[in-house]
Amino acid sequence: MSLIVQKFGGSSVANADRLRNVADIITKTYSQNNDVVVVVSAQGDTTDDLIAKAKEVNPRPSKREMDMLLTAGEQMSASLLAMTIEQMGFPVVSLLGWQAGFLTDTSYGSARIKRVTPDRIKKELDKRNIVIVTGFQGINRYNDMTTLGRGGSDTSAVAIAAVMHADLCQIYTDVEGVYTADPRKIKNAKKIDVISYDEMLELATLGAQVLNNRSVEMAKKYNIELEVLSSYNRVPGTIVKEATKMEKMLISGIAKDDGVARVAIIGVPDRPGLAFKVFSKLSAKNVNVDIILQSIGRNGTKDISFTVSEDHLQATMEVLTPYVEQIGASSVVYDEDVAKVSIVGAGMETHPGVAALMFEALFESNINIQMISTSEIKISVLIERKDADKAVAAIHNKFFPEVVDQ
Ligand code: ASP
Ligand code: MG
Fold this sequence. Notes:
Layout: E1 3-8, H1 16-31, E2 35-40, H2 46-57, H3 63-87, E3 92-95, E4 102-104, E5 113-116, H4 119-126, E6 130-134, E7 137-139, E8 145-147, H5 153-163, E9 168-173, E10 194-196, H6 197-205, H7 213-222, E11 226-230, E12 238-241, E13 253-257, E14 260-269, H8 274-284, E15 289-294, E16 301-309, H9 313-326, E17 331-335, E18 338-344, H10 354-364, E19 371-375, E20 378-384, H11 388-399
Parallel strand pairs: 1-2, 1-9, 2-6, 3-6, 9-11, 10-12
Antiparallel strand pairs: 4-5, 7-8, 11-12, 13-18, 14-16, 14-17, 15-16, 18-20, 19-20
Helix pairs in contact: 1-3, 2-3, 5-7, 6-7, 10-11
This protein binds aspartic acid (ASP) and magnesium ion (MG).
Magnesium ion (MG) is lined by residues 10, 41-42, 47.
């Protein structure tokens, strides 16, 4: 007998029909003589709707009360799914995060899992129950409800798979897996069969919206193989696993992030310590800086440019505007009209010329590169925002020409 963890996202459990469809997947798995633990998200847009309701009565509700409210969404979908399965004549029980043993820290709204003690889950499995667990939630040391941050149900599922040494962790969603580019925009985008944790982590962080990045981090840490697949079409999905076991693709995928801004400090005195000062000021305000570019010093000054996420732009400008004068720089300016386009692939470590191919695609589309950054498995460029979709398409055609007009 195998233990299988199955996670279903909000659209997969959105209404009675979708619940019956999911119940069918679960009971089939159970009937093949498996133990099944199911993790659910809130139905459809429930979490967004609950946030909107909160704002109607209080524009700045406390995080504790927000978590008290938001955890209700998963409680509803878990019980409704259990009732659907009951109706089909199978033994089932639904559990809240705390009943399933999820202990978290006290950061309401973005809590981290400290420990999962799955005694109750085990007891229920021993009774041959299908166990449904609310995703996205736990309890802290004050016995208060906490949530794990948006999209946190993926992490709940991986955590259960890790502590229970599950044989398989399936993440069911509304697309058929992870794609080489956003399939809604790039019609030749193709499903990736296998991808490594590191590549998936880059893609998840860069904005491919299929898996929450913390869940990928956890899967990597505990070496839990994930399968991302559709609850609509029963076809094989994408396997996420350790890199050594697979053939390395030149690149796995292309991601676009248009939630970025470029900041430039102009006329910075060309002497030691200034980059240190600027970036420690920013990190003290929890601003994450991404691509950094420093010009060569000329006439005793240089320019330092970097990118931040758009949410951090205001904080960045608030910190730097008064500060530039103090350090003897002339000004700080920003540009929000930019986007970051990245290619990710474990194969680029061993194949020269990947960057050149990417730049050639951009050149052929007459797209100017403002900044470049690279890591072992990623190349990112910063370009004008209006060019972003065109850039992704051009790069995709360059690296995946064989699937054109398929
Ligand atoms: N329901 C939560 C959200 O919408 C958690 C999740 O879906 O994973 O963010
Ligand atoms: Mg959701």
